[in-house]
């Protein structure tokens, strides 16, 4: 049997043992966290412990965490005109998002299509702060803006200048939502240091279960007046429905483990990633690594080689036991050109060949070796194929 090597951690991370253990215990808890009896109170304790752990990962207070069904729901919950600040109920008229946001942000949440505007990024894949500043100045007076920027991009891994953006947004009287789904658990992600008013997390990207996430509120005086789910008063009215105790327990344990290992994991992944990229360049000197001139997550490489199609590479690597993806997971399988690379001005043909390799804290040197051997086979096939094509054209 071919040894499997999983290098698609940005799509989803394998469950951490701590998360499995906590979720397994929670599976057998009978109580509803809203019930006052002992069983209910035991379930409530699990939820509240997890809330504290998730808050701890991002330097927030426990009561700032609203559990959701994942990153997508947290993004849609955050992106609403009806965010009250200190009781001020006047709606926000405009949403600015960067051109490289996840589709759940680019869709604009509950803003009307006409109220959503995109901010460009540089060729390195970094949000163009000068362009943001110009738009903020042009919209000055409207005052009631919401800006949404991701902390790190899921395809390139490029880390965005969030703290600087927060200063600009706040000076213009706006609020800043940060999608930290890809950064949390991989690099430091402190809601106060970032200056985020709202911050999105997803458990399955950091070794928790799929189908649970959180919206973290950065300031006590901030209140989302129109929850997506109304009904029972769970999550202090912000998200009705009996809590996903199993998922939340796993999320809390994963967040705690991620926070504990953060510095060591980042250093390990970064050195493996260096090895991976040096190996890629040695085999394919014309390989383009996107966002390589910017600060990136320690675990992510997005690479393309002229003439190599992503779908061909994915299938060949998969047959050799290596799981990677083309651009973002959402578009893999469909092989639509990446909006991220398009926004960076990458030529469409090259962008269509983009392959994302993303590592995790337990990725080994041996696995990088397996990947590089499979890549070498692929690259040799490519050079033979292109010689043939050249031969035919001649
Ligand atoms: N935001 C980013 C940057 C992501 O990469 C993803 C998942 O791919 C999401 C949001 C959505 O998170 P979830 O899968 O929990 O809905």
What does this structure look like?
There is one protein chain. The chain is globular. The protein has 394 residues and is α/β, with parallel strands linked by helices. The protein is built from twelve helices and 14 strands. Residues 328-332 and 387-394 have low confidence and may be disordered. The structure holds pyridoxal-5'-phosphate (PLP).
The total count of helices amounts to 12
Q: Would you count the extended β strands for me?
A: 14
CATH-assigned homologous superfamily of the largest domain: Type I PLP-dependent aspartate aminotransferase-like (Major domain)
| Widest beta sheet: strand line-up | 2-9-8-7-6-4-5
User: Which hetero ligands occur in this complex?
Assistant: pyridoxal-5'-phosphate
CATH C-level class of the largest domain is Alpha Beta
Cα gyration radius (Å): 22 Å
Apparent shape: globular
Q: Helices, strands, pairings?
A:
Blueprint (H helix, E strand, L loop, with lengths): L4 E2 L10 H11 L10 H20 L7 E4 L2 H8 L4 E3 L8 E5 L4 H4 L9 E4 L9 H10 L6 E6 L11 H10 L3 E5 L11 H4 L3 E5 L10 E5 L4 E3 L20 H39 L4 E2 L10 E5 L5 H10 L2 E2 L15 H5 L4 H4 L3 E4 L6 H29 L1
Parallel strand pairs: 1-13, 4-5, 4-6, 6-7, 7-8
Antiparallel strand pairs: 2-9, 3-10, 8-9, 11-12, 12-14
